# Entry
Amino acid sequence: MKMKKFLAAVSSLVMLGAFTACGSSSDDSSTNSNNNSNNSNNSNNAEATTKADTDSDAGADNSSSAGGKKVGIAMPTKSLERWNRDGEYLKAQFEAEGYTVELKYSDNDTDQQNNDIQSMIADNVDLLLIAAIDGSTLSQTLADAKDAGIAVIAYDRLIMNTDAVSYYVSFDNYTVGKLQGEYVIDALDLKNNDGPFNIEFTAGDPADNNAGYFFNGAYDAVKEYIDAGKLKIPSGKKKFEQVATEQWSTDKALENMQNTLASYYSDGTQLDVALCSNDSTALGVAQAITSDYNGKNSPIVTGQDGDIANLKNIVDGKQSMTVYKNVSDEASVTLEVSKAILSGQTPDASLISSLDAEATYDTSSYDNGVKVVPSYLLVPYVITKDNLDLLVETDLYQWDSANKYLESTASTT
Ligand code: BGC
# Structure
């Protein structure tokens, strides 16, 4: 199909190292437990009243409407692996369609992200794609974007407390956590096995709206076994706020797990599960288990993202699984939504059938405090040491020369 061929072309360009490094002026170095049901109800369409409405040939073929249009992309940080990939894929895919791209990373600093977005507004971008560092700190800046007639897509992370965001493109975040919880249930055979087993949670950054969804998805999945006494939490930390990890930091996750192990496991108590919301935190937790855990067993460690270091840990038995989210597909869905907006259309459920990536259109789950933001949600899946080849099939990963570990085919990761 058209987009598949396009993606194959993009990934071979990546493999040839044909892309220039990501442009960056800045950083080169709810806990809502809704299961984000597929809702094709189109009643809550975004109002994408933008410059595109006035200065584009609305109704023209999308692919020919890029001429001269500029897209501003604000990514949180280069220090977490996945955002390097997101930035690279978005830039490559938009440029391949003729758009000019301004890409900025803001070093996980909210003031800097506000400044970076302001400078893209001043540069007259036609559209903003924003993966927020802190979803609640962009209201004023986005009001300025709205005044300038610039449409905003919240990329991966919902932007809160603003009516200036037109769409949200992400994965089904609650399901990400649910898949982690279900993995634990299957691995310990909790339906048949009374245990008890000991579990500890490590969640994400409280400033990231996704973090609560991941935690709740996982917690809700295992809750019946906690309630039944088959899973115990020796630390007693079962609330998101108690296990959150600022900025998704590997070092903080390491330190928190070291403290938990020292306080609750030094007497020989066995740790069976470290349920981590993502790979950057799982990396720290696995490190703490290696250095500070005295038990003979290898605890189950969950993750999310398919980061290279974590895939190595999966091969080495230090991490059990990762929930994989194909961010190249996330970029391509964002591109399709953007093309529609920039050609003066109002994307809705009908866009789904033209996407090559599997996604749902949801107009009920993601309320940002001011409006329910229409969302395109892609589908995550579980990767373990037994199905790593599925990653190779995406063309985004390849086996290394020793055929032992996976490496990225992209140039920046
Ligand atoms: C993303 C995750 C990522 C985390 C830290 C979240 O918003 O959805 O994929 O692991 O941020 O970068």
